[in-house]
Amino acid sequence: MQTDVEKARVPGGSQPTLFPLGQYSAPPPTPKAVCEAVGLNWFAAEKLFTEGMLSFDPNTTDDITPAQSTELHFLGVLVVAGCAGTLLEHLLADLEKPYSYRLDRMYYDWDNQLWSILRGDEDVQLNFERWLDHLVDADELETLERLREHVEGAIFRLRQYHTRLSPW
């Protein structure tokens, strides 16, 4: 297992994610929608499941979690790019299942035959805090207020989620 690449994994479960806003906090897509978005035919998605690469059955799963969507996207993009059989197995050999890795945060290093994390994305929180400092220095009050609204909305959704889970 490559520990630095684990930073590119979307956490499992159905809990909404706080950052980044956008595709990972959007309503859950269907497996068919993800397949259409990456150009993966349905038979290939079914085959990924039957061969044990995809952790969920796309035929019996309607709304998928962000981690499942990312996993289907990750595997689908590799298949659409022409990676199949032995090559696909080689590319996945050092990764942990389920393959819910974000391709925008990692790359395959062909010289060293391993996946690596993209530098600069290693510490999202630090980068976010630096961006906030930059907004303060640039007197970007309107932007900060919009961010506050997004953060407060995300906190509210998480509190509602945890309230539904709590038996008290």
Largest sheet: 2 strands, antiparallel
Low-confidence stretches: 14-21
Count of folded domains: 2
Mean pLDDT: 84
Shape: globular
Report the end-to-end length measured between terminal Cα atoms.
39 Å
Q: Please state the CA-atom Rg, rounded to the nearest Å.
A: 18 Å
- Estimated share of beta-strand residues: under 5%
Number of strands: 2
Helical percent range?
A: 40-55%
Strand arrangement in the largest pleated sheet: 1-2
Going by helix content, strand content and strand pairing, the class is mainly alpha
Number of helices: 6
**H/E series, N to C?**
HHHHEEHH
Structure commentary:
By secondary structure, the chain is mainly alpha-helical. The protein folds into two domains: 3-117, no CATH class; 124-165, no CATH class. 47% of the residues lie in helices and 5% in strands. The chain is built from six helices and two strands; from the N terminus they run ααααββαα. It has helices at 31-38, 42-50, 66-80, 85-92, 124-137, 141-165; strands at residues 106-109, 114-117. A hairpin with a 4-residue loop joins strand 1 (106-109) and strand 2 (114-117). Helix 1 packs parallel to helix 3. The longest helix has 25 residues, at 141-165. It is globular. The termini are far apart. The relative contact order is 0.15. Mean pLDDT is 84; it is low at 14-21.
